[in-house]
Structures are given as structure tokens and as C-alpha cells.
Amino acid sequence: MKKKLNLPSLTDIILAFFGAMLCGLGCGFINYASFGMDGVGIFYDGIRNTLHLSADQIGTASYIVTGILSLFLWFADRRYVSFGSIIYILTYGIFANWGTMLFEHLLPAPPSMIRIIIALLGLLTLYLGLGIYIAIDIGVDAFTGVMLYICNKTRKELKNIKILFDLSLVILGRILGGKLGVITLISILIGGPCISFLTQKIQKTYFQFKLRNKSH
To answer: How far, in Å, CA of 120 to CA of 139, rounded?
Structure first.
């Protein structure tokens, strides 16, 4: 007998799209600021360089990496590959492009201080999006899925795994030719704690929201 496919609730789906949108916009803001990327972004850039793809084909590199990681998760622990993962893939890239183009039209040549502010805003937006996505628990992006898989296997906290994971991606990405920047260092230092803090707060708020709805 085939297992019945359980789709998430409409509220979960809407929040999943919103979380993926924030992640994409955050990536776009950081990309526009040009002060380096987070660990994942540098790794994508390194893969792009290794495959001799042009600078505007970093998205192609991300699809290759994401495909390989998703395949790994499918065989290692399928709970990290789900309906929500598909939502993330379909939404993230579109809003990453829009996030970059938004500031290219609004601020074609901003001073360094403005770009730094935009980059920090991008990090906050990215981490908030990831916090929402992890909190609703209907699926995550491939890299977060791998991190959660490692957390589950090692029984370590996400914030600690995130720091080590980002550091590994930065080193590998740099070896492969990815570009470093001040945002890279900031993301390594604050990424794990920020995502962990936001996830816990969002989980608590959303759980209370669901309880109130069930009681009516």
C-alpha cells in the first residue's frame, strides 16, 4: 500500500514562500554590496570558477551543488528533502536576482558606507528567512538540510555546526577561486547564533499561533 502524501497547511506554504523570498532577497542585497558573500556564496563562486563559468553563471553553479547535496540527503535522510525544499528552489533564485536588480536601479553607484549597510541588511534578511524556514519545518534548502543532518548525527547545537560549516565552505570556496570579503568574516562569526536565535523565537510564536487557531 502506497504511503499517502501529506501536504503542509496553506499557512505553512505561505510562510515557506515568504522565508525563501527573504533568503533570496538577502542574497541579492549581499551580492549587490560586493563586500564578499557568506560561506555558501563563496563556495558557489569557487565551483563557478572551477567549471570555467562566467561571473553571471553563479546560479548555474548553485544548481549543480544543490542537486548533488539534495541527492545525498535523499539517500541519507529523506526528511530533509520535501515539498518545502521544492518551494525554496523555485523561489530563492528569482528573488536573489530581484534583490540585486532592485538596488542596481535605486542606487547605481552608492558610497562604501551605504553598501556596507545594504550588506548587513542582506545578512539579517537572509538569516530571518532561514529562521522562518527552519521553524515551520516543512523542508529546507540543501545546505541547511546537510547542517541539520550533521546536527542530528553529532547531537551538537546548530549555531556551532553553522560556524564550522561556513568556515569549511569558505576555505574550500577560496581554494577553488571564490572571492572573500568582510561580509564573509561577519557571516562566519554571527551566522550560527543569529539563525539559532531567530528560529527559536519564530518557532515559539508560530506554535502559539497554531494553538490559538486550534482552540477556536
So the answer is: 26
